Amino acid sequence: MDPFGRDIDLESGIIEGASEKWTRYLSDMKNMYQDQEAVEEILDSEDPLLYEVYEISVPKESGQLLHCTTILYPGKVGNEYYMTKGHYHERKDTAESYLCLSGRGYLLTQTEDGDSDALRMVPGRLVYIPPYWAHRTVNTGDEPFVFFGVYPGDAGHDYGSIEEIGFPKMILEEDGETVVRKNPDYEV
Ligand code: S6P
Ligand code: ZN
């Protein structure tokens, strides 16, 4: 393959040109929110789009780098903000960097040993996800939360354990404030 360039709109996160795009709706991750009554109530009337991911197409091979933007929309399910599903990389020894382009939110991380963290993300802030750390993002603002990510081509995604146990920390709105709370349902 030859070197190439792509244009990324730093506000909207849209990548022009030959990129792949995929989307996730509330129905795709309805069991991952704590307030299941709130989930059912929303799904009775609509199935909101939670986020879109644009990915620049390169071979998913060792030595390549994948580049993507995520556009995570604002909203809540009960008092829990819209979030991504979250994953480990299938090849667990692969890292990832996120650069926040617009909006605001949090990066939640965890390891299989039970370590966890919550890092704030604002435009211009880079967060680094070392190998072996699962990662999820949360939109705590009123605007789309947009970030750019770079990770190894052969990293892959492992959603399995996150779908079952979630993350140790959750980001909630309480009395108009954004708070980081321990996930009461989290068990290793
Ligand atoms: C890929 C990278 C992001 C996420 C995206 C959606 O390694 O971390 O592109 O895929 O933010 O999150 P998720 O957890 O649904 O893949
Ligand atoms: Zn990742």
List the helices and strands and how they pair.
Layout lengths: L18 E7 L10 H10 L3 E8 L8 E8 L3 E2 L2 E2 L14 E7 L2 E6 L5 E6 L4 E4 L4 E6 L5 E8 L7 H6 L3 E6 L2 E6 L6
Antiparallel strand pairs: 1-2, 2-3, 3-11, 4-5, 6-9, 6-11, 7-8, 7-10, 12-13
Radius of gyration: 16 Å
Overall tally of domains: 1
Under the CATH scheme, the architecture is: Sandwich
> Main β-sheet, in a few words?
6 strands, antiparallel
Strand order of the largest sheet: 1-2-3-11-6-9
CATH topology: Jelly Rolls
Overall average pLDDT: 96
Order of helices and strands: EHEEEEEEEEEEHEE
Fourth CATH level, the homologous superfamily: Jelly Rolls
The backbone outline, from C-alpha atoms, is globular
Helix % is under 10%
Alpha-carbon distance between the termini? Answer: 43 Å
CATH class: Mainly Beta
* Percent of residues in β-strands: 35-45%
Report the total helices.
2
The helix/strand class is: mainly beta
Q: How many distinct beta strands?
A: 13
Protein name: glucose-6-phosphate isomerase
Family: Belongs to the archaeal-type GPI family.
Enzyme class: isomerase
GO molecular function: glucose-6-phosphate isomerase activity; metal ion binding
